[in-house]
Amino acid sequence: MELKNISQIEHATRFGRPEMFRFGVALFFVIAIMLVAGMSIGDMPHNYMLIAAAMIGGYMAMNIGANDVANNVGPAVGSKALTLAGAIGIAAIFEASGALIAGGDVVSTIKKGIIDASMLQDPQAFVWLMMAALLAGALWLNLATALGAPVSTTHSIVGGVLGAGIAAGGFGIANWGTMSQIAASWVISPVLGGAIAAGFLYLIKRTITYQENMKAAAQKMVPLLVALMAWAFSTYIVLKGLKHLWKVNFSTALLLGLVFSAAVYFFVKPMIFNAAERLPGDKSGVNKLFTIPLIFAAALLSFAHGANDVANAVGPLAAINDAILHGGIAKKASIPLWVMMVGALGIAIGLALYGPKLIRTVGSEITELDQTRAFCIAMAAAITVIIATQLGLPVSSTHIAVGAVFGVGFLREFLKASYSKMVEEVKAHHHGKDEAVVEAFLLEFRKASVAKKGLMLQQLKEHSARADLSKKERKGLKRVYKTELVKRSALMRIVAAWLITVPVSGALAALLYFTIRGIMLP
Q: pTM here?
């Protein structure tokens, strides 16, 4: 009887064990940070503040890994180009590598220049401000991850710095012009990402999947698309991923990317041709040709993300470290190795422990993805950042990637509705004819290229008798047959989270600043 009760208890608690394990690992990491920071800092004045800030920085880094990295690998997982475990392994390695190799050794102490630190006379107030901003950003990311909403980590820390800055120095401390640019990115990023992703998907459909001989079309177009991807990603890595190691101007980066893409084209063309010969000449065969490029895309996006977004975790920590060491507020702060290690390891650990939820959200819960659609999303992520960098537009990598997923889904809805309307036109002009004749024409119509479909419809209208339709049937033909391929609940949840990221993290940071100030003041 007692053994049976024990078995029932174990069965009832089995769902909580993975969560307790994740929490335990995360707690162990934060405690390890406390010990390492304590040994690295020594007996400097206010060392307890820096140790606390290091622990918060590690917590922030884990939340970046849990929430933000999903944008880089989610489409590859959703399209089954990568398994979840494989994606986590690749992302963890390349995120940490990007942070440690190309994360930079100096960081701006005030993210995006959104507040004027010269208005703060007391270095202690600056330390409290940055601690409050870091903790607020981390708490909001934690909540967003729990709700399954991919949000911008940059906007989270920007909101934190703004809210704590206003609490410390009043509304005059904020740079509202910069904030208006950041607000503009809420619209610019997803719209641009969605438009580019949809454009690439339409290009692939017109040049490959809508062709009568898909295999021959794929052998011709896929090498060009892979070369274009190599151009975009090499330019993206040079401009964003390696900017702390090697600064080049935009035209030089483009030229280097073009040379690399030409080499890639001649290298992959025979490989793709031979691979296509062994695959079926249908959509499934075309999809398989994009699998390996998607794996490289996930790795390169993760490297660039680690190089750029590690600053969201270690930037405020480096600023606190510099203020405590030098007793002043500087515009730039150096990043000690132990601080960079906190950011790099934190992102990798957060991804491994809590990343799968957001990876599934981005990869499969918004719209159904295959390798072709995921390829278009990866292209949009790289090209949008390149365009925005050149034009000086403020964009969010999270908003770009998620906007690209929505763009692909909405294009599929539009094409599905257009095709349904064409099928109804065919049926209307075959009204009264034998069903076998109608099905034979529809079968030929489905296999035809876009140009041939148009010709078939035109000939049908010219040579068939005027369709004798009832009023009800005529209304039915006018109606566009809309199939919802994008989950509307996911759209509303994610957009709502984007809109409230800066206000919520700002309000939370202001509250935390006053709390820390109240504790620290005598």
A: 0.84
